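Design job #97: recover the sequence.
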């Protein structure tokens, strides 16, 4: 057994205590071997557990979660992806809130797993051969700089839901006022809007 699995189970159990899934769709079932073939690497166990439990969607229209592509064709959709060539070429994007991180990380090593309604970018620094060791990097539109958070994607989300950050890491702080945040799968949100119904009302 992977020594990280008990920790992953505990984090996911705690996320389920805070996050209510609304709508009929719960999670995405992916062929993780096919995903590995597309990206050339495995993904963190906590992220795989979150995708299985919740899938691609949004937390209160504030934090959006992406799933990985299972085919090379899907890479052109809104899936887990590297930074765009435009971002890589923009010197203003390569700014870090902690001066000690400057020059330590390459933008080419970032993989986007989410974004916020305030246009923040949520990534992994995907350099460690062991994916479970990937820290989270957040590009905040309010500070125009990256900040690094150890612990992985699911732990980062759990700390958001618990409001445990000393400095709030994303530009939209509306989640801090919601005691029971909701998660809505992209499929259910799209279906509701097609019917002319606001699923968040």
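Job complete. Output follows.
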């Amino acid at each position: 057994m992977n020594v990280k699995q008990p920790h992953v189970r505990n984090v996911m159990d705690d996320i389920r205590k805070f996050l209510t899934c609304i709508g009929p769709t719960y999670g995405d079932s992916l062929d993780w071997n096919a995903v590995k073939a597309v990206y050339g690497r495995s993904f963190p166990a906590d992220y795989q557990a979150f995708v299985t439990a919740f899938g691609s969607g949004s937390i209160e229209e504030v934090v959006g979660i992406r799933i990985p592509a299972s085919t090379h064709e899907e890479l052109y959709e809104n899936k887990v992806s590297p930074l765009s060539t435009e971002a890589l070429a923009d010197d203003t994007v390569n700014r870090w809130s902690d001066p000690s991180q400057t020059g330590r990380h390459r933008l080419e090593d970032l993989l986007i797993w989410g974004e916020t309604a305030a246009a923040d970018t949520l990534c992994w620094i995907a350099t460690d051969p062991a994916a479970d060791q990937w820290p989270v990097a957040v590009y905040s539109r309010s500070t125009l700089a990256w900040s690094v958070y150890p612990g992985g994607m699911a732990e980062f989300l759990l700390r958001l839901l618990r409001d445990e950050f000393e400095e709030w890491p994303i530009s939209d702080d509306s989640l801090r006022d919601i005691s029971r945040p909701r998660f809505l799968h992209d499929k259910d949100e799209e279906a509701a809007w097609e019917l002319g119904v606001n699923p968040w009302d």
